[in-house]
Amino acid sequence: MIRQGWPHQSFPSGWFQIGWSADFAPGEVRSARYFGKDLVIARTESGTASVFDAYCPHLGAHIGLGGKIIGENLACPFHGWQFDSDGRNVLVPYSTKVSKCRLRSWAVAEVSGLMLMWHDPDGTGPTWDAHAVADRVPDVDARGAEYVAGYPDGARRWERVHVYPQMIVENITDPAHFHWVHHADWITRVENFSEDGPQFNVLHTMQFAPNEPSKWTLDIRTYGVGVMTGTFRREDEIQFVEVQATTPIDEEYSDVWGTIWMKAPDDGSAITDEMRGVIAMQHEQLERDFFIWENMRYVPAPPFAPEEAGPYRALRRWAGQFYSDN
């Protein structure tokens, strides 16, 4: 059931997280449900990841339940029909001919250890490059000991949260909630905000005490309404980077993903207990929002206070581009 006040009837388009790359071994086939659809996530023997609609176009078997990878193809458990990574039928084991039918496939991108799928309710392919996210996320493999954590140490998934992706994204324009929801006693301000096609940017400044000399900034970039990055800097030096991602399961519930990369200790050592504590605290801060999100109504035309109206309204206008019914 659509939540009261929610103005859209369609799921949003964009890139959405469906897992972490390291979770999917070559040859693995897994069922999933997102965007109100039963899906199959598979990785071929050579390592190519794919997402398909779950039901075989031949006679309707659920390929995610009993299907298997044979080389580079996905085989249906019912009659062994094989489909390549684009969903084309490439083998009917008991026939000299293949079928023109296709298993619907969805674009997949693997970025800094995140597995993302493209969704568009109209079936349109990707309209922007998911690797824009990588510009903000430390590539731990490439940068060695400069950053630690990510997956699995910095990663967490919350299943079936009663929230829409845009509701989480709207938090980035709302510094006032930090005091009431997160019990923050620091001073937070939106310094500036801007949009760039599918990307919306917000820069916060944070001062943890009125006379504290050091200043923190939180640079947030959201890529569509599915994936956003937050870069925490102290005096212009990155301390940690967080990715929050929200993927709709159906019209009411979403899976929420959090992944944190932290600046490595100066001696190049691995993650410390103190760093684990920071990661746990950040995940706990996200959880504090859940109670609000899961029990709220969406107000389509709020009576904003003057201080919050500008960024909030700009973000809502920007987000409208991702809905086919807008």
UniProtKB/TrEMBL annotation:
Top EC category: oxidoreductase
Protein name: cholesterol 7-desaturase
Ranges for domain Rieske: 16-117
Keywords of this entry: 2Fe-2S, Iron, Iron-sulfur, Lipid degradation, Lipid metabolism, Membrane, Metal-binding, Oxidoreductase, Steroid metabolism, Transmembrane, Transmembrane helix
Keyword Cell membrane: no
Main location: membrane
Gene Ontology BP annotations: cholesterol metabolic process; lipid catabolic process
Provenance organism: Mycolicibacterium moriokaense
InterPro entries, sorted: Cholesterol_7-desaturase, KshA-like_C, Rieske_2Fe-2S, Rieske_2Fe-2S_sf
Catalytic activity, EC: 1.14.19.21
Assembly with partners or alone: Homotrimer. The two-component system 3-ketosteroid-9-alpha-monooxygenase is composed of an oxygenase component KshA and a reductase component KshB.
Cofactor: Fe cation
UniProt subcellular location: Membrane
Entry GO terms, CC: cytoplasm; membrane
Gene Ontology molecular function: any one: 2 iron, 2 sulfur cluster binding
